[in-house]
Amino acid sequence: MLVSYSESSSDEGEDSQPEVQTSYVPSQKRPLEENKSMQSQKKRSNLPLPDDIIQMFSKKKDDNSDNPELHEGRIRSFPHEEGNWATHVYIPYEADQRFFELQKQLFLLLQPLEFKTMTEYHISLSRTVTIRHHWIEPLIDSLRKEFAQLQSCACELQLLKLYTNDEKTRTFLAVEVSSGCKTYEGYVAAVDKCFKEYRLPPYYNPPLFHISIGWCLGDVTSKITDKVKDSLQTQLDDFFKKETDFRFVDVKEVHCKTGNKTFCLSFADT
C-alpha cells in the first residue's frame, strides 16, 4: 500500500535568532498571503458539483435504456451491459401503404386491446443475442461467406398467428410465412453455424418464420377469442384477394444488425 505524505518546511533557528526574524518581517507577509490564497483556491476546488453535471458522467444515466416508461412499457429481454452489442439476423421487409392499411384494419378488430406498430418489419433468422465489440468483424465475415453460397428466394405469406416473447411481456400479431419455404431453413442453418463459433444460442427449433405486424404489452393471447381470430384471418384473406402480389415476399438480401450498425449479407445470385 502506497501512502503519500506531505512535507512541511520551517525556518530552523527561528527562536534563537529573533533579530533575523525582525529583519525579514516585510517578506513574511507574502507567504502568508500566498497561503491564504492557496487555501481559498482549495476551498473553491472542493465546492460540490451541480447534480446535472454529476449525472453526465454517472453510469446511472445508462439506466434510462432499461426504463420501460421511456419505451412504451417494453422491457429488455436482457439488461444493457457496457461493451455488449445486441445482435440480430433477419430478412428486411419493406412495408408500403397497403400494408399499413391492412394493419389498421386488423388493429380495429383487436380493440379494446391496444396493439401498436413495430419500429421495423422483418422475418427473423436468429434470436437477439449479445456479442462483444471485437467479435463483430469476424462474425460478419463468417456470415457473408455463408450467404454468398446461398440463393435468394420468394416465399408466400399465409396465416395470421399470435406469439409471445420468451418473457411473456409482449404479445405479437404476425403473418406466418409458408412452411413449405425450405430455403429459409437453409438461411437459419447458416446463421446457427456462425453463431456456434461464438457459443451463441441457435434459432428456435422448429423455426417459425413470420412478419410481426404489431405488438401489445403482456400476454393477451387468452383475451383474443376464436371469433376474433377468425375475423382477423378473413380480413387477411380478403386483402390477399385484392392485392395478389402482396402475398409474396422477395428475399434479395439479409441484414445483420449489431448495436447501431446494420450490415448487408448478399446471396450468390444478387
UniProtKB/TrEMBL annotation:
<comment type="function">
    <text>Phosphodiesterase responsible for the U6 snRNA 3' end processing. Acts as an exoribonuclease (RNase) responsible for trimming the poly(U) tract of the last nucleotides in the pre-U6 snRNA molecule, leading to the formation of mature U6 snRNA.</text>
</comment>
<dbReference type="Pfam" id="PF09749">
    <property type="entry name" value="HVSL"/>
</dbReference>
<keyword id="KW-0539">Nucleus</keyword>
<dbReference type="InterPro" id="IPR027521">
    <property type="entry name" value="Usb1"/>
</dbReference>
<dbReference type="GO" id="GO:0005634">
    <property type="term" value="C:nucleus"/>
</dbReference>
<keyword id="KW-0378">Hydrolase</keyword>
<feature type="active site" description="Proton donor/acceptor">
    <location>
        <position position="210"/>
    </location>
</feature>
<keyword id="KW-0456">Lyase</keyword>
<dbReference type="GO" id="GO:1990838">
    <property type="term" value="F:poly(U)-specific exoribonuclease activity, producing 3' uridine cyclic phosphate ends"/>
</dbReference>
<protein>
    <recommendedName>
        <fullName>U6 snRNA phosphodiesterase</fullName>
        <ecNumber>3.1.4.-</ecNumber>
    </recommendedName>
</protein>
<feature type="active site" description="Proton donor/acceptor">
    <location>
        <position position="122"/>
    </location>
</feature>
<keyword id="KW-0540">Nuclease</keyword>
<dbReference type="GO" id="GO:0016829">
    <property type="term" value="F:lyase activity"/>
</dbReference>
<comment type="similarity">
    <text>Belongs to the 2H phosphoesterase superfamily. USB1 family.</text>
</comment>
<feature type="region of interest" description="Disordered">
    <location>
        <begin position="1"/>
        <end position="48"/>
    </location>
</feature>
<dbReference type="GO" id="GO:0034477">
    <property type="term" value="P:U6 snRNA 3'-end processing"/>
</dbReference>
